[in-house]
């Protein structure tokens, strides 16, 4: 529960900071989803390695902090809003960029966690 509160507060901070940047693109949401995907990939990537985190730590970081920080619901609603605003190119770019970037970030997180162990 405390991890979720921390993640939500961090997400709010990113939203406030990026609200100062004029853009029709949902920068805050894509940024928190990419960062959260990387962190969760890293946490999961440590399983079975000497760097493996305690299950309670994985729960706090993964479910709590990352769960409160990232937001699939905002991604979905912002995609619908872009469609309703008749901005299909921006919407398509947002959806594709989110899916690809979050996949690559999660994969990168697992690779980084493995790389730290082997060094």
Q: Gap between N and C termini, in Å? A: 34 Å
Order of helices and strands: HHHHH
Name the average pLDDT.
94
What is the count of helical runs?
A: 5
Largest sheet: none
- Structural class of the helix and strand makeup? mainly alpha
Which percent band covers the strand fraction? under 5%
Helicity, as a percent range:
over 70%
Task: Annotate the secondary structure layout.
Elements: H1 2-18, H2 27-45, H3 55-69, H4 72-84, H5 88-118
Helix pairs in contact: 1-2, 1-3, 2-3, 2-5, 4-5
Structure explained in plain terms:
- The protein has one domain.
- The termini are far apart.
- The radius of gyration is 16 Å and the shape is globular.
- The mean pLDDT is 94.
- The chain has helices spanning 2-18, 27-45, 55-69, 72-84, 88-118.
- With 119 residues, the protein is mostly helical.
- It is 80% helix and 0% strand.
Short description:
The protein is mainly alpha-helical and 119 residues long. The protein has five helices and no strands.
Q: Can you give keywords for this protein?
A:
mainly alpha; 80% helix; 119 residues
């Amino acid at each position: 529960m405390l991890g979720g509160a921390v993640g939500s507060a961090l997400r709010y901070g990113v939203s406030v900071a990026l609200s100062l940047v004029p853009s029709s693109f949902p920068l805050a949401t894509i940024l928190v989803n990419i960062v959260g995907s990387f962190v969760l990939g890293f946490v999961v990537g440590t399983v079975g390695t000497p760097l493996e985190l305690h299950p309670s730590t994985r729960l706090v970081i993964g479910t709590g902090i990352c769960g409160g920080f990232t937001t699939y619901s905002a991604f979905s609603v912002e995609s619908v809003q872009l469609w309703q605003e008749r901005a299909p190119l921006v919407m398509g770019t947002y959806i594709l960029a989110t899916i690809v970037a979050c996949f690559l970030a999660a994969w990168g997180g697992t690779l980084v966690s493995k790389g730290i162990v082997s060094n």
